């Protein structure tokens, strides 16, 4: 185990250094960059084209965090290496196709060559080197991705109990806490549990994280397998019932990121999207405090009616509006801040009403019962109640970047 | 093929491999056993993966009875030995002797199967049903699969013995008997692994 | 005529086909049923592409779409690609090694009927409340009793039955190739197609048995409340993934190796050169086959088995790139310096090389475990394996069809139609699948029935669907070609391509006994050797005489039918209101199966002999034919 820990540390240090160097030696590398640009101009064109595809904060071709950046860089590295193979094969192929053709009336057999040991050795050994180039980042990268920091933290916590005397250095390290969120997959929504010791709370379908902070995710599943994926920030890891998985991510810019479930989980697998919202640290703290507050009766009378209905219709059995309530459906504590309804619908009153009346037609196979008998007034009241369940500072909400 | 071979000087020393058909059966059966091995390996793997998944049910060490299993092991080992005697007899063209040894094999196999059924019934009484836990399921699947193989082997050998009761050893039935005894050895080898992996490891941890 | 001279004369046509144990007739049966399954699954693919044409399209519901992806994958791999490859393996391998039949003609027929009834069983699911819907991998818990519907039961039992068929066929091929070779046909003189068939068959023996075990476990879970894959009472859902991929990865090589073999036959023939680096090709095949079992966990990089396991399996996967590269370069150098004729078969075979390289390089990219956290379960993977399967296996199959068609059916397929078909297929294929790489990278997971607007996926999905239309048009053209050629193409002799291997030394149509006299093989590419060093015909290794042939038998059909009933009976256990007790159906099926087996075992069937005179007369007839 010690050697693994060492590898962990080693890799993350190296990677850290790597990124610092990248930043510092900007000017020097500009010349190199230009030279490279000429060499690989055609590739660059392809990459520009690729980067042009897809939506910012969704596509993995426009990485927005250190992990996705690492993945992107190494994908490009592998593309370069593979380009060598492709070029060699295609050049050979087109030469063959152009040069060696059978001509009418030529009945001679060509020379029956048996083979060539030298060539065989060549195309065995050269690819070995090419693969070696890829094998090194494969191993180091896997440790980099798997290192959530949770394990190290636990080990240190244990040490703390064992040894009372701590020198200043390790005390500093201890302060470097990893934030932990448990992401649980359900058919077809996400539950995010924030663990701040005594002050824990639950959010549904939208996960808020502080920007520029490494966040560790514990992945679980309630029913079938799911897979937690924010393409612009990190690689995916599966949520498996009965098993705890771990991953981490870090967002370098505030904004609203799109996440997806990447493992087939039933009829509405395609609609199991979620949002990851990265906030500045102070804004995040504010939000987290708000989330821990108890739900209060709204001042507006319509919304108050809605609140009563919400209890009458036993919505509370499945949906929590603060720490209490069931967990069969997503927590609605901050429903008013939602970017989507039912993970994909645009936030409008009409959509919300349609959803309450007949969820099955909008999202096949989900577990929410239909409420077709609610009158228009009742629906209005419910909508008014739900829409005022806001936890995010209005200014912050306004300033969120969505594309 | 069979009738074209010259039998005037008696059977060749390896009657099971004397014809192309016999050779094909011989090789084909070995390949089949390779496949069977992989299948059992998968069941073993599943058992090893799930043997600690006892849930709320009893654990291996609580229920396994080594003396019973030891007796079963001895019975099956002996039956393997008697089938070897039968094959020796076949190569010497002593049909009657072969028949007797084969029937002894069948008798021992039946005894083994009886003990196994008794064993399963006992476990169910102790509260280890097939659906009790993942450990129970994988245990019954692995040992039950072996039991099914024993049952199939018994039917097969009996059928051969009845069918060729009066025919003597021929180039047609020699490969069949040979292959059946090969199958029987295979079952025996699998049991050795079950004895070790399931019972000894179950009791010893 | 040839067929009438032997004992098939007395039988009706239907009875003859039901009871045949002739490897050539079974090959035709495989070809027809494989093609039908291929068309069915292809149609599903077109429907799925129509659904994905526009964002939030409602042509198919999510549930139906899931049933389509599952059936498309399951049918294509188990019930289309496998039998189509088996068709050629059955027809060609005995001819190429100079044998009169396979080692176990009875088992050969059994293999076909098991596959056939297994396929029917899977397809029946549509009529009993819906097809399986958990993907061709049927990951638990989505496929376990709490979440998966009756369709999964059809998947489990149908694949179990057809899997046994594949397994026994595999055993048969191994014994045939090892024991039945003509005199002088040493292992290192065997055509590469025989080698790949041998390695594929070995893989079948070691891969389909874990599948059988896994399916049995899933069946116990679903029908008898087993606890294997139920988390909570100690069960573990990841075990299913391990078992499935221990089978599933070799399965890829089971399919692609015979395609490699076909390419290795077609390219030398139309380059008029012997295969470059034959020995290296043989060993590359063996190494690929071996490594195929060492890499299954690369399908599970995101399951969380730890960085060490991920790294080990990543590197093992990369190493497979090397023997594959050896093959690619050997094909290129076979063509180098040759005199290439570009007919449809050669177009497919030669374009296979660069296309397969594109699939191969994405394979190496996927092998980088940490980067695979991005690719896994996205359209990038979909693009990758379609480049392997369509650009590899299907191109190989189409090439093989054009190449061996005159041997199997006595006439060539039309070349003009063939070339149009090839270009349509090739262009359509790249249109469909190239953009899917990028779709995956910009965030489109696989197996999604729809996608939202404004995610930059609209245009590329449209392109992909158009490509799929072009590809289907090409397949329709192929079907037209088959019908057109049957009416218009002239009859061909035994050796229409100036062939190099033994199958071209037989007359067309191939007589029931293949070779009147077993040929004496003197070299690799034996027929070509005789063309250069002899008079162009094979030297016989034995005098002409009576030929022993196996009798037809209905038991393969009844054994399979019994298993079909038994399988259906097990499915009925999960049906809510079965008309009769499932146990009766299971018992009836069991009695038919085991009864047939016992009858077959008890009845000694020594076959029959074609007399020397008949053989001589038939050879004369065939001689005038071609």
UniProtKB/TrEMBL annotation, chain B:
Q: What InterPro entries does the annotation carry?
A: Cyt_c/ubiquinol_Oxase_su3 (IPR024791), Cyt_c_oxidase-like_su3 (IPR000298), Cyt_c_oxidase_su3-like_sf (IPR035973), Cyt_c_oxidase_su3_a-hlx (IPR013833), Ubiquinol_oxase_su3_dom (IPR033946)
Q: What is this protein called?
A: Cytochrome c oxidase subunit 3
Looking up PROSITE patterns in the UniProt record yields:
COX3
Q: Where in the cell is it found?
A: Cell membrane
Q: So what family is this one in?
A: Belongs to the cytochrome c oxidase subunit 3 family.
Q: Which parts pass through the membrane?
A: 27-48, 68-88, 100-118, 138-162, 182-202
The source organism is Geomicrobium sediminis
* Membrane topology category: Multi-pass membrane protein
Q: Where is the Heme-copper oxidase subunit III family profile domain?
A: 1-203
Q: Does the keyword Ion transport apply?
A: no
The protein's matches in SUPFAM superfamilies, at most eight in alphabetical order, are given as: Cytochrome c oxidase subunit III-like (SSF81452)
Q: Keywords on this record? A: Cell membrane, Membrane, Transmembrane, Transmembrane helix
